[in-house]
Design brief:
267 residues; 14 helices; 74% helix
């Protein structure tokens, strides 16, 4: 419990900065919804001139633009991007910060196993992501209620928001497994941004082609199709299981490699 408490305390400030940033992003875009709903046809004609790849990259769904859930799904792609960066940063830094901050000697000489250490750290990180999502969901639901032009379905709104937690856990697990291959990471942000934006652009640009359904398996951003969620009020099982598999395998490999990894003393 001491390790979990320490991790929660050390990540407290950055977590609330990310929560505020995600909510500010949602508030900025949702505040425009009444205007877009009022002049919907003009916006549809304007956006129809964009190429399909650009519309896909920006998460634009013209047919659903004037409904709250359709518009929310469009702006939610940017929320997912921010949330993925937060989770990747958390995953990359969780096991490497002891070497970076030269506290490995202090932590690993204590009479606790490495399994206990990594389990406590992962539990703290997952808890931070759950807190992020709980506060974001409450804030975004309040904002959506304030700007809605007509009633929207709560279940669909909840399913859309739960994709943020799912995508974050996938990116957290990817960051975790990538980090164990590094002896020392001086800074995680450049690597985090490179991976997240690379997968985001790959998912946006390559899934519009002939083999888009296959390419979707290579980008976690495409495991949850918002249009499918709006139409079916559920997730696509094959992509959901793929995300679950990526998460389980990544965390399992992280355990195996970290338990065998040489942790060098401070020099």
């Amino acid at each position: 419990m001491n390790i979990i408490g320490f991790e929660l305390k050390s990540q407290r400030k950055s977590t609330f900065i990310w929560i505020f940033s995600l909510l500010a992003l949602a508030a900025l875009y949702l505040s425009m919804f009444p205007l877009i709903a009022q002049d919907g046809e003009e916006y549809k004609n304007l956006l129809a001139n964009y190429s399909p790849s650009i519309r896909e990259m920006l998460g634009i769904q013209i047919d659903y633009l004037t409904s709250l859930l359709g518009y929310y799904s469009m702006i939610f792609s940017f929320v997912l991007l921010g949330g993925a960066i937060q989770a990747m940063n958390l995953g990359l830094s969780l096991l490497t910060k002891e070497s970076r901050e030269r506290t490995a000697d202090f932590l690993f000489v204590k009479p606790i196993s490495r399994t206990t250490v990594i389990t406590a750290k992962i539990a703290a990180a997952i808890l931070l992501l759950i807190i992020t999502n709980a506060i974001f969901f409450g804030g975004s639901f309040l904002l959506a209620t304030l700007v809605k032009q007509e009633a929207f379905e709560f279940r669909t709104f909840l399913l859309i928001n739960l994709t943020l937690l799912s995508v974050q856990i996938i990116f957290f697990s990817l960051g975790l497994v990538i980090s164990v291959f590094f002896r020392k990471l001086k800074t995680v942000l450049p690597l985090s941004l490179g991976i997240v934006f690379g997968l985001y652009l790959a998912g946006s640009l390559l899934t519009t082609g002939e083999h888009g359904n296959i390419v979707r398996y290579f980008s976690p951003f495409k495991y949850f199709d918002i249009v499918y969620i709006i139409q079916h009020r559920s997730y696509e099982l094959s992509y959901f299981l793929t995300g679950l598999g990526v998460t389980v395998i990544s965390i399992a490999v992280s355990y195996i490699l970290f338990l065998r990894k040489d942790i060098h003393a401070v020099s």
